Amino acid sequence: MPGRDAAEPDIVSRALARNRLGVPSVVFFGVAGAAPLTVILGSVTTIYAVIGSTAVPVSYLVAAGILSIFTVGFVAMSRHIVNSGAFYSYISHGLGRVIGVGAAFVALPAYALMQVGLFGLFGVVGSGILDSFGFTVSWFVCALVAWAIVAVLGVLWVDLSGRVLGVLLVAEISLVLFYDLIMTIHPAGGHVSFATLSPAKMIDPQAAALLVVAIAGFVGFEATVVLSEEARDPKRTIARATHWAVIIPGAVIGLSAWAMSVSTGPGNIVAAAKDKHTDLVFSLISTHVPQVFVSIGYVLFLTSVFAALLAFHAAVARYEFALGREGVLPGIWGRTHPRTGAPLMGSITQSVLAIGVLIVYYATKADPLVYLFGWLTIVGGLGVLILMWAASAAVIAFFIRNRGQENVWRGQIAPVIAFLLLSGVLAATIIGLGDLLQVSKDSPFQWLFPAAYAIFAVIGFGWALVMRGARPDVYAAIGRGADGHLTSIAAMPPAQRMQTAAAEAAALRSIRAPQSTLIH
Amino acid sequence: MAALLADEFFLIAHEDRTGRSRLHPRATGLGLAGALLGELMVSDRVRAYEGDLYVVSREPTGDPLSHDVLDLLIAQPQHRELRTWLAFLAQDATVKVGERLLRAGVLEPVTRRKLMGTQTLYMPMNSNQRNVAAWAPIRLAEILVRRRPMNLSDRVLVGLVVATGLTRHVLWDFQAHRDALVHLPTIVSSLPEDLRQLVEHTEALVGSVLAAGRR
Questions:
Q1: Chain B residue with minimal CA distance to A507?
Q2: Is residue A492 included in any domain, yes or no?
Q3: Over the stretch B43-66, which tens digit does the pLDDT of each residue have?
Q4: Cβ neighbours of B137 in A, within 8 Å
Q5: Cys-Cys crosslink for A411: which of A25, A36, A148, A399, Cβ 3.0 to 4.6 Å?
Q6: DSSP code of A436?
């Protein structure tokens, strides 16, 4: 080989870089799951109405701040582990495989419930739009139609392409900013009030619990690290894109929630939201803009919820695929359709779960907006919060063991701050869950959901211990992704690696010997 | 002349009637990239050690495409990782191998209009060509079912078929092929260490490409 100094031009790097993702594409991928318009028109108005707190705008800004600090350590760690797929792989790297499997068992119901909850929102909005055309269709029928389309697209693995999502997202955000402008220049009583942005509101324990709902609005931003192998510069692209995927929705949602309160006046926002629900923003602007802008808004709202449904469906299916491939779930979940790469079992499981939940809600005649969308988003958000909290602890543990890999801010200070903040939010959420769900003091729902997550986690711990005993090779690959076998060797110190390789070679020889006659 | 590894993989990975890929296009590309590197390893031009590739002989291979790949490996010594080369070669492997099959008279180019632009597929057009294309998977299944002696190239082919997810296409009959299916893992693990690494890295890359779910 003629010297090892780099040959110019570097044909390989250039060719590979051409097909890789830049910062904008990765941001779109992350924000598409969060779907800002869905959060603004669906979640924000529902929170105003159901919880009756005026701290909503500031809670989104605070949540964005907390998640930004969390992102610093999270992205730093993603550079050092090969399979940076999902929270559970971080947790298994940082806190061990037993806790990692527990986290995976919390993650599955959390993401799955959030997706099912969105069907409630879609049903209500869809039936509202049809109603304005003079058709009376129940929310259940609309949700069923969406369910059928998502189920089919999920099996065919028709992901909305990056370009379509990008166009929708830009249109959504432009429209929202336009609405915000209209609401702000027509304030209630003639003056613009900043009362709902006061940080003092966050001191109230109920307001602290609001953060879980706010954090639920960002879910999906962590998906950016999945693309680290596809990014142009894995070190910088993903870090920047993840920060943007937190900051952009945070700013847009916070601003919009504030603009709503300006338009109605901070004192009237709760009553107005209770009256109009998801139509709140449209009714606030409809007197000031031509009707066409309201119609565009409704269409984009519906496409935004649908895109979020599809994104979450794919995320859950992919999660189950990853777990199946690693042997945590039965192997059939790790299979994909050969041509499309669709994780079939994951997709079908989620669709079956969704239709089951929808039927239960239809049969019990529970209000789809409050109990399906609102509750499941909050409960799912609680699960994701638990995951983030555990992941922030994993980041600390990881950098204690791998000192000097990152600077002090990224490796130590930011992760510790993020862990303390998330611990506070988690504690406030568990204490304040009854208030968030609006149940009475003696209702079992106050403690049922955290208890259920605890049980799931314990089942996960137990399952991990069973795996350690029964299938140690599979256990060793947990959290190491598709190439578990390779990375488990690559991650070892060189001396140990040689030993393993030697042992494997010896084992192979012993296996190969009797069969060699058969093969050659 | 014995059929080339990448050619055989190409014929198995594409439908003979439509020319479409049976796998996710990126998985097919990775399988073909693995096959191209496999050709160089089988002919002792390249070795893999702990996930890195090393050129051990610069002697021309006699085939323009595999010589081209060998030349690139020599020209870019700063890139050694097997994964990098698989990802790099996967980008245009379908076209490159398709062109080689065109030169061999096995396939012909067909240009299709798509929503945006056109796409060139390589597919069998006459009955002779169709027979050759359809024979590729059947030949492999025959060898596996009858446990015929396999040369190194065919064993690598089996490894890549398993790694990319074409197993059920080659061995499609649950009853008749059950024994052969059970036999597959031993074939893969009996490969020499560097070819086994090639198969494992191909499988891992196919997995992560599918997990990212990007077209």
A1: B189
A2: no
A3: 999 999 888 999 999 999 889 999
A4: none
A5: A399
A6: H
Going through A73-190 in order, the beta strands assigned E by DSSP cover none
Distance separating alpha carbons of residues A37 and A278, to the nearest angstrom: 11
Domain hosting A132: range is 20-482
Of A353 and A190, the one with more pLDDT? A353
Chain A hits for B84, CB-CB cut-off 8 Å, are 12, 16
**Interface check B201 vs A, CB under 8 A:** yes
Domains contained in chain B, number: 1
What global pTM score does this model have? 0.81
What the block records as the tokens of A287 is: 């007197």
Mark yes or no for CB contact A486/B23 under 8 Å: no
Domain annotation covers residue A512? no
Shortest CA distance to B71 belongs to which of B55, B88, B49?
B55
C-beta atoms of A318 and B211 within 8 A: yes
* Distance from the B201 Cα atom to the nearest Cα atom in chain A, whole angstroms: 8
- Nearest chain B Cα distance for residue A26, angstroms: 11
**Kind plus residue range of the DSSP H or E element containing A442:** none
B147 touches A: beta carbon within 8 Å: yes
pLDDT at A487 over 70: no
Residue A519 belongs to some domain of the structure? no
B212, part of any domain: no
pLDDT single digits (tens) A401-454:
988 888 889 888 999 999 999 999 999 888 888 888 888 878 888 889 999 999
Chain A residue numbers touching B166 (CB-CB < 8 A): 338
Residues A19, A22, A26, A27, CA torsion sign: negative
Chain B residues with CB inside 8 Å of A339's CB?
Answer: 21-24
pLDDT of A496 over the 80 cut? no
Is B21 near chain A, with CB under 8 Å? yes
Nearest-by-CA chain A residue for B78: A6
> What's the CATH code of the domain at A151?
1.20.1740.10
- B215 located within any domain: no
Select from B23, B55, B63, B17 the least CA-distant residue to B160: B23
| Number of domains composing chain A | 1
- Any domain includes A12: no
CATH of the domain at B141: 1.10.3630.10
Helix, strand, coil % (nearest 5) of chain A?
80, 0, 20
**Please, which residues 282-341 of chain A have a Cβ atom closer than 8 Å to chain B?**
314, 318, 321-322, 325, 336, 338-341
Label residue A365 left, alpha or beta by phi (over 0 means left) and psi (-120 to 50 means alpha): left
38-67 in chain B: CB under 8 A from chain A? 50-51, 55
Q: Write phi, then psi, for A442 (nearest 5 degrees).
A: -100, 15
Distance CA A450, CA A437 (A): 13
B31 assigned to some structural domain = yes
Interface of A with B in 239-258 (CB under 8 A): none
Three-state DSSP at A478 gives: coil
Residues 101-140 of B with CB under 8 A from A: none
Q: Is residue B116 part of a domain?
A: yes
Query: Helix H segments across A203-278?
Result: 205-216, 236-264, 269-276
Closest CB to A226 among B74, B149, B212? B212
Task: Supply the range of the domain harboring residue B176.
Answer: 5-207
Residues of chain A with C-beta less than 8 angstroms from the C-beta of B150: 519-520
C-beta atoms surrounding A179 within 10 Å: 26
CA distance B39 to B36: 5
Predicted pLDDT of residue A15: 81
Average pLDDT, chain A: 83
